[in-house]
Structure formats: structure tokens, C-alpha cells
């Protein structure tokens, strides 16, 4: 049976800091639920009720569209080694872009990654731990570097052009506001 907490415990924070991967789930008021795996040393614990995670440019931008409509977010971690555990963080998210005043407060918490798009802050309402006995054991080999290489090859202007071309609408057609919120202008 799972246990629910009002904030992350010290043991939960230590577990999170060891993880190589986490999953983020969001949903707009209607339409597709999005669930994305994340890695690349992109999550930081701010305090027992707040995490920040760095979002790097990918094929879609669902999280942005969803959080603008409905800030609910769930972040999940699974123990793929050691004792079984699934840990979920539930809360309200807010999104920062490079043009936001708070960007500088958080960007230096993360490694400089090419293709950096947003930082999400999750204000945690509750956490839930459950057994995870059905999660298989895996050995971590390495983080992939192909996304970083792709963004390095494109350069910042190329990444921003990709945002304009492919990251402005969600699967359900909701705006992501990536161009406006990043302070970019679309060249006609």
C-alpha cells in the first residue's frame, strides 16, 4: 500500500538525487495526456516542496501547452536498481523561458545544455511512495548524447528556427507560446 506525504522526505530526496531518469505527466483540460521520460542531469531539488527541471528541445512541446491551460503535473521516479520503489510528486507547475525575469535564478543550477528550452518549477502538494515490485531491474549504462550533438550542430539560431517550425502547437492544436514567451520574433 502506498504512503502519502505533504512534502518530500529526506529519504525521498536522497532517492531522487540518485536517479538517472524521471517521467513527467501533464494534461490540458481536454485532449491527449502527455507522459515524457527525462534524463540528462536535468532535475534539481530546491526544497522539500519544490523541484525544478530543465526541458531541452524535443520533437514536441506538449508540456508547455498543457501547463499554460492546466498547471497540474506529476513527476514519477522508479527504482531500476536496489530496493523496489515508485515515487510520485504531485503539484502545480509553472514554466520559465529565457526571457523570464526568474530565468537567471534557476539556469545556473543546471549544466549548460544545447537546445535548452524551458525550466519547470513544480510546487509539490503531496508525494506518494509505492512498492514498485513489478518494475524490472536494469543496469544504467550512460546518458545518450545524440540530442546534445544534434542541437550543437544546429546552433542556437537553428534550435530557435526549429521551435518556430515544430514546437508551436501541441498534438491537440493548443498553442505552446514558445516563440512569444522566449522573446523571439518570427521572420516572415
From TrEMBL:
Residues 8-99 form the Pyridoxamine 5'-phosphate oxidase N-terminal domain. Coiled coil: none annotated. It comes from the Bacteria. SUPFAM superfamilies: FMN-binding split barrel (SSF50475). Gene3D superfamilies: Electron Transport, Fmn-binding Protein, Chain A. This is Pyridoxamine 5'-phosphate oxidase family protein. InterPro entries: Pyridox_Oxase_N (IPR011576), Split_barrel_FMN-bd (IPR012349). It holds the Pfam family PNPOx_N.
